[in-house]
């Protein structure tokens, strides 16, 4: 298990290094973007740790990051909870899936930015808009993956539970949900970066707080150092949270004797 975790974290580290290399090569390939707008990873590092006002910049960035992480957690929990409940209902009552799944996929095709003004008008600019927008980003991919996991529960176990008088809810609790644990973790890993994106968009267009608002303020002020630093922090946060979920997945599935989905 330790070796598996080390390999997983090593692959994420390589991915992050690759992102930095691509970032650098992109700025080299399009020199017209910089040096006024474009910032290299070294420029961002100097902005945060080398400049005279680096302490102030870091303090503001960490404060905004704390708000964004809280907002991401709200969206993640709301979206995952809704996806698990809806997926269970769709599996137990197939007509529901056949009726509402196409509608859900149609709604997913609407850009989140286009839905933001309507969502803000309905629920306001507080934590509710964060929960709705973050939940929307998390909900749809998680729903599909969780439904697939629930559908792959061993039929023999379900038949035995049914033979002993168990109803659909008992089958779901004792067979389908335990079998879907790998799919649940896969959905969680995919949803964590999505939750951060949803929170950032909600902050940008709804709450005016956190890293989303920081990016919004940096653009008209031409504060490109803060802009690129915010983007880097969002990227690193997504990778770190993805890694945390992946490590937990490895430990839990090893204890269960189950392979990842």
Automatic annotation (TrEMBL):
Annotated ABC transmembrane type-1 domain ranges read 61-245
Q: Which UniProt keywords apply?
A: Cell membrane, Membrane, Transmembrane, Transmembrane helix, Transport
Primary place of residence? membrane
Its placement in the membrane is given as: Multi-pass membrane protein
CDD domains recorded for this chain? TM_PBP2
One annotated GO biological process: transmembrane transport
- Gene Ontology CC: one annotated term: plasma membrane
Q: Which residue ranges run through the membrane? A: 12-30, 73-93, 100-120, 126-146, 226-254
Q: Where in the cell is it found?
A: Cell membrane
InterPro entries given in the database record: MetI-like, MetI-like_sf
Which family does the similarity line name? Answer: Belongs to the binding-protein-dependent transport system permease family.
According to UniProt, the name of this protein is Nitrate ABC transporter permease
* Source species of the chain: Gordonia jinhuaensis
**Lineage per the UniProt record:** Bacteria, Bacillati, Actinomycetota, Actinomycetes, Mycobacteriales
């Amino acid at each position: 298990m330790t070796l598996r975790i080390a390999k997983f974290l090593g692959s994420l580290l390589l991915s992050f290094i690759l992102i930095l290399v691509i970032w650098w090569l992109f700025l080299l390939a399009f020199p017209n973007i910089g040096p006024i707008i474009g910032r290299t990873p070294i420029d961002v590092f100097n902005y945060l740790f080398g400049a005279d006002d680096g302490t102030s910049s870091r303090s503001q960035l960490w404060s905004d990051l704390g708000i964004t992480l809280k907002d991401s957690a709200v969206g993640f929990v709301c979206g995952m909870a809704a996806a698990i409940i809806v997926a269970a209902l769709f599996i137990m009552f197939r007509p529901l899936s056949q009726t509402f799944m196409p509608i859900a996929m149609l709604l997913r095709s609407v850009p989140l930015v286009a839905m933001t003004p309507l969502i803000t008008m309905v629920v306001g600019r507080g934590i509710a808009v964060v929960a709705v927008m973050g939940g929307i980003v998390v909900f749809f991919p998680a729903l599909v993956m969780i439904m697939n996991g629930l559908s792959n529960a061993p039929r023999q176990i379900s038949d035995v539970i049914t033979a002993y008088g168990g109803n659909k809810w008992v089958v779901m609790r004792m067979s389908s949900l335990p079998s879907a644990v790998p799919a649940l973790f896969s959905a969680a890993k995919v949803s964590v970066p999505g939750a951060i994106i949803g929170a950032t968009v909600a902050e940008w267009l709804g709450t005016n707080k956190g890293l989303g608002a920081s990016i919004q303020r940096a653009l008209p002020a031409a504060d490109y150092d803060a802009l690129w630093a915010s983007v880097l922090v969002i990227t690193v946060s997504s990778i770190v949270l993805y890694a945390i979920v992946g490590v937990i997945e490895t430990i839990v599935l090893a204890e269960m004797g189950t392979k990842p989905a």
